[in-house]
Amino acid sequence: MNNQIKAVLFDLGETLLDFGKVKTTRLFRQGARLSYDFLKSCGQPVGNFEYYCWSNLIALRFRHLISNITRKDINSSALLRGLGTKKGIKLDTQQWRHFAWLWYEPLSKIATTEPKIKDTLISLKGLGLKLGILSNTFVNAHSLEQHLKQLGLLDFFSVRMYSYQFDFRKPDLRIFKIAAERISEAAENILYVGDRIDTDIEPALKIGMQPVLKAAYTNAGKTPPNGAWKIAHLSELPALINKINA
């Protein structure tokens, strides 16, 4: 069997982007304020801010609870747009996209990346590897990719898959199978890099990928299963792949 690494798939949160332990309610209020002020500037019927903020928060938390039961991520942007439309808010496509971005913007501002992340990705591309993203998320793709573009990272990834676009999410093996098909490589030739053992490392192992656990607060004190590698920084990947492919 040829186990040469030909492609690398990355998780997003706490892997490519580090958010850390966030105060979700505070960030939500910041996003609510930005989106509220935008709607108000557009002459939309937004009403009282506190009602706007809490009604959206309750709706999102309820749908998030349901998604944890069904194991299917929601499209938070579509949900917020639907709530706004029912209240008489009318925006064009670009305005709705900006509206979604304003909800996400406070989170984007606290995100960090490794200091030499671009150098690492350039090195991986220099090895002839295909790069992609496979992430569980309810954040709209347009907002995530606007963030990646601002960081100068978007164009490195030819395949970008977000769980809300599917009827299942990690650790469901079907989403890993689709990712392999989209990046056009056999599972055994794909390195999957993530921060969680349950949703990243174990399913990647089951489908035959070669998983790498990136150290993060989400796996502190945990040991990856046999067959998985562990790294402290993404900058270790080029050397690791050269070692595997030697």
Which secondary structure elements does this structure contain, and how are they paired or packed?
Elements: E1 7-10, H1 24-41, H2 49-70, H3 76-86, H4 93-110, H5 117-126, E2 130-135, H6 141-150, E3 159-162, H7 173-183, E4 190-194, H8 197-207, E5 210-214, E6 229-231, H9 237-245
Parallel strand pairs: 1-2, 1-4, 2-3, 4-5, 5-6
Helix pairs in contact: 1-2, 1-4, 4-6
Descriptive notes:
The chain has 246 residues and is α/β, with parallel strands linked by helices. A six-stranded parallel β-sheet has the order 3-2-1-4-5-6, with helices on both faces. Helix 6 links the parallel strand 2 and strand 3. Helix 1 runs antiparallel to helix 4. The protein is elongated, with a radius of gyration of 19 Å.
